[in-house]
Amino acid sequence: MPRLSADARHLVAFTLNGRPVKGLASPRILLSDFLRHEIGATGTHVGCEHGVCGACTIEVDGMLTRACLTLAVQVDGSTLRTVEGLAPAPDRLSILQAAFRRHHALQCGFCTAGILMSLDAFLRETPEPDEAQVRDLLSGHLCRCTGYTPIVRAALEAAADLRKTTRETAHA
Amino acid sequence: MKPASFGYVRADSLDEALGVLGNEGAEARVLAGGQSFMAMLNMRLARPRVIIDIMRVPALAELAQRKDELVVGAGVRQARLLAMPGLERTLPLVAQALPFTGHVQTRSRGTVCGSIAHADPSAELPLCLVALKGHVHLRAAKSRRKVAAAEFFTGMMATAKADDEMIEAVSFPVANGEGTAFREIARRHGDFAIVACAALVSDHGIRLAVGGVADTAVARDWPHLEGTALDDALNAFAYELDARDDVHASARYRRELVRRIGRSTIEEAARCRA
Predict the structure, then answer these.
(1) Choosing among A10, A74, A75, A116, which should be mutated to test the B contact, i.e. which has the most B CBs within 10 A?
(2) Which of A82, B94, B122, B252 has the fewest CB atoms within 10 Å distance of its CB?
């Protein structure tokens, strides 16, 4: 049974977007702060810090997770995906990211990292979503720029594009 | 908003968790999915000396039907219960209410027992547990007891759990032919309910539980009332709940919701049964 004292910093190691990373954290350090300040992965944004706004949403062991409601020491040994892991190459956007760009599904971009992570996981599980399902998913995020409509359009178009890609791969 | 300093224990077994809880008492708090408790820590509404993470205790992951109860262990996340095959037949009320609990992104981590332990008066799962006359299974290092839902919730975010106890599981009686329905009014889907109603209609009569108004979810049982007799019963219930004005809604609006949403929920439950 690991017991981590409040005052000391403890080794935390996990897989981030396919690469092993590690750093030191005292028990009170939030995963959102650990990713940004200790690992240097600043793609994950920090908004409300009590789980409401959704900006810090990432994937931990396949589960959508508010990084601000998670302690860094909790994810020792886990597998994490963040927005930095979405693009297939540094100069290429993923299908979902490209749809966001075409539809102007972001303006200031603060909420975008979390919304992309939610939609990325959602579209894998729900390849043929309807608008109501997308809006239900987006109820877990706050966006103050777009009014959500361009995000819904981008998500539905990305779903259609992803279905095409899967079919072509299957026929190849 | 960052938590104050605390020590962290990752329990590998229930005995380890209960041992730390027994030694530390009120200074220790159990961390499960963290979707309510981590927010309390971040806002420093909770400042424990030690946190006991129970999510790697295999025994707490139980989700199984035992006789006429569905037992949900302390490690079972809300998303897992919602995805359970046949939930709409085993626990139709929970299948109806759970999509209103938080969002996809919080149900993926949050646990069923964590929501019960948090005891928010407007939360859906405590309401379901009260409506269905479920039980909370409490464990301490040297004791165990099973508390009825109505006795477990003692006030706003207050429960009958002692400082050295933790919730090991909750149990919901499985459906037995009654009609059930759930409705709630919130500012946005997934937000805290201004008023939430859960209704059961069976051969014995009507049972309506209301959350979001009093300090805990409260249930009433009536015979098969109809027409103005049902209106009168709902009106009396709305006043008995002692609604208060707050930033979300006035007391008068809450009473009106109890009358109207209460009635439509009961009618839907009656249709489900027919």
Answers:
(1) A74
(2) B252
